[in-house]
Amino acid sequence: MPRDVRIEDLFRLILPGSPSLSPDGRRVVFTVRRLNRRENRYESHLWIVPIRGGRPRQLTRGLVHDATPTWSPDGRSVAFVSDRGDVPNVWELSLDGGEPRQVTSLKGGPITALSWSPRGGELLFQHIPVSKKSERERKRGPTFKHITRLYHKEDGFGWFADEFWGVWTASVRSGRTTCLTPGDHHDREPRWSPDGRRIAFISGRGEDRHRYPDLTSVYVMDRNGKRLREITPTTGDRNTPRWSLDGRHLYWLGYEGGPGEWLYHEMSVWRSPTSGRGKSEPLNLGHDRWAMNMTVSDTSVSLMAILMEVYADGDEERVAFGSDEEGCFRVYSLSSGGGDVRPEIDGNVSVLGLSVATDGDPIAVACVGTAIDTGELYRVRLDGSCERRKISRLTAPFFRPLRFREPEEFRVKSGKVDLQAWVLKPPGLRSGRKYPCLIEVHGGPMAQYGEAWFHEMQVLAAKGWVVAYCNPRGSSGRGMRFCNCIDGKWGKDDWADVQALTNAMARKPYVDAKRIGILGGSYGGYMTTWALGHTNRYRVGVTQRQAGDFSILWGASDYGWYFNFFFRGKAPWEAPGAYDRASPNSYVKNITTPLLIIHSEGDLRCPIAESEWLFTAMRFLDRAPCEMVRFEGESHGLSRGGKPRNREERLNRIVEWIERYL
Question: Which helix (H) or strand (E) holds 564?
């Protein structure tokens, strides 16, 4: 007999990702991520499945986190990043059998963007060396951070001192590692040229690199780090360099423009000659969708992931790229000369990973998720047919015992604007009965709800509450004008849209209009606090990791000074009234709704001081019940990447608070 979704189902989640197609196009190595309740950590292992489908086979085991699998050119082994030696290092697994072999012996710090050289003797990766101090070392000496640069921290990573992301290589045989790009600059996303003689990467090396880290350029150097040259000398934001098949051009994603302008430019596919001579050319101007997956959920680690791959379609070279649109993340392709944009993976999907064939056959493998699936692998033909076939059924054991509903999409009118919205009804909803309703607001605001399994919402619906959510103005997925129309004006049109959704739900025959609550995190926390400070129609609120005070955000957030662009180039001391009026904390005296505040103590994106201020004011005024839950050792992404038991406790606290007051 199927049962309702429970909080503890977190520990049953099966989360596939990171597909990598073998050189001969016959096999796929991928990761499967799970939450280990007993050890209070994540496990991730490598699996393999034939491209034509069949029973997947697990390759690695143990209390480890294995990630970023990449095939050797001869298809006989797979390199991957693992913490099986306490700190991340590169390991190699022979597919002929045997245990993984440690390749590198780095002292600590994350490793990403791993790839083999075309001839197979070297591995290329992105690394930032962060040595791990022992408890004894901490006790024996002073513990402090000496900060000298404006850009010195990043949520989810931590603090930079004199460490910088660099381009590294390692000898597969000896394990010897070399940093090819030393210096006080961050170098990311390295890629081998097709002949293995050169390396492309992204770097910010201008005078303002520590002030505006979004200003980056594409560089090319020889495989030994010599003969460095910049091939995109104009200012802009560049990501994801990819070589043309003949090595004469590089494709990249981004725009040409100034700092803080990401809301005012399309993230287009560009092409630049690797010689450094000639102009960069945009290839799909007018597509007007971000190439990042901005579909939020609490089960996907692919938020802000970028997809772009180059492949051969007969005699033609094409570029596949992701597109964030209408609650989905789909894949399109275009010709190497620009134009001829055609869909490759369509429908109501969120593509979580993509790997293309290198043997000239326009075949790819994709990890694809939906609102009722955490992701499965598909074989895809990249020929414009949008033909795909499922080759895995890994998540069936998770979903088989559950009773749940699929979110129902509908439209909401907010003035002249038509909003995309969804309602998730309780599994046991009965005709003629009215149910309490919860309004969820996503973060960002440059993100979107859509095709992703959302465990939190399914838990709330299973409790007998109707859950409704929409993509208000400011969300991604509908073009830059829809996304940037609230820039510098939060709490106006976006607030009107949240009210429009609330009013629409209040009119539903199955909703109790007197029992509506609101909750959300980050920008969703902003909107929750804003709503309660501007109306008393909500019976309960839960504000999480809230952006509640723009003055605190400006000075204490990892990228806070970028809010200068939000306030017409003015800092808090130049426009204190504007910062106060835009901050939901400023309206705390109006709040009469029971409010639960949840925040992580290690949040570097929305510092916890914003919620401490709100909690102190709420208790000082004593006009409504208010409690605060602080999670130790967690960052901004607690709900989707925090320690498993903290995620469980967070959901327990939300459910208990709503049960108490709704």
Answer: helix 563-566
- Which residue carries 């309780």 as its tokens? 426
**Amino acid symbol at 53:** G
Burial of 328 (0-12, 13-18, 19+ CB in 10 A): buried
Query: Quick one: tokens of 51?
Result: 């491209």
Average pLDDT over residues 197-221: 94
Other CB atoms within 10 Å distance of the CB of residue 225: 15
Tell me the two tokens of residue 168: 């590294």
Contact status, residue 279 vs residue 271, Cβ threshold 8 Å = no
Predicted local confidence at residue 302, as pLDDT: 66
Residues 6+ apart with CB under 8 A from 141: none
Asked whether 221 and 231 are in contact (CB, 8 A), the reply is no
Residue with tokens 């429970």: 6
CB–CB of 468/549 below 8 Å? no
Write the CB contacts of 529 (distance below 8 Å, at least 6 apart in sequence): 541, 543, 546, 548, 584, 585, 587, 591, 595, 614
Instruction: State the pLDDT at residue 138.
Output: 75
Whole-number Å distance between alpha carbons of 44 and 526:
34
- Residue 530, both tokens: 């804003």
Cα dist. 423→408, 426, 461, 499 in Å? 5, 10, 10, 15
Weakest mean pLDDT among 109-123, 201-215, 577-591: 201-215
Mean pLDDT, the chain, rounded, equals: 95
For residues 421 and 312, give the distance between their C-alpha atoms in angstroms, rounded to a whole number.
39
Share of the chain above pLDDT 90, in %: 87
CB-based burial of residue 331 (10 Å sphere; 0-12 exposed, 13-18 middle, 19+ buried)?
Answer: buried
SS3 367: strand
User: Among all chains, which residue has been given the structure tokens 């095939």?
Assistant: 71
Residue 109 burial class via C-beta count within 10 angstroms: exposed 0-12, middle 13-18, buried 19 and up: middle
C-alpha span between 253 and 271 (Å, rounded): 9
- Residue 106, amino acid: L
Contact assessment for residue 535 and residue 591, using Cβ atoms and an 8 Å cutoff: no
φ, ψ (nearest 5 deg) of residue 380: -125, 135
If we measure between CA atoms, which residue out of 421, 477, 445 comes closest to residue 293?
477
3 state SS for 235-290: CEEEEEEEECCCCCEEEEEEEECCCCCHHHCCCEEEEEECCCCCCCEECCCCCCCC
pLDDT for the residue numbered 131: 75
The CATH number fitting domain 404-548+583-661, selected from 3.90.1170.50, 3.30.70.1350, 3.30.1360.30, 3.40.50.1820 = 3.40.50.1820
The residues, ordered by sequence, that sit 6+ positions from 93 with a Cβ below 8 Å of its Cβ are 46, 59, 60, 77, 78, 79, 80, 100, 101
Q: What is the pLDDT of residue 366?
A: 97
314: region left, alpha or beta (phi > 0 left; psi from -120 to 50 alpha): left
**pLDDT band for position 521 (cuts 50, 70, 90):** very high
Of 240, 249, 377, 263, the closest CA to residue 320 belongs to: 240
Q: Which of 244, 155, 238 is nearest to 204 (CA)?
A: 238
Q: For residue 300, what pLDDT is reported?
A: 81
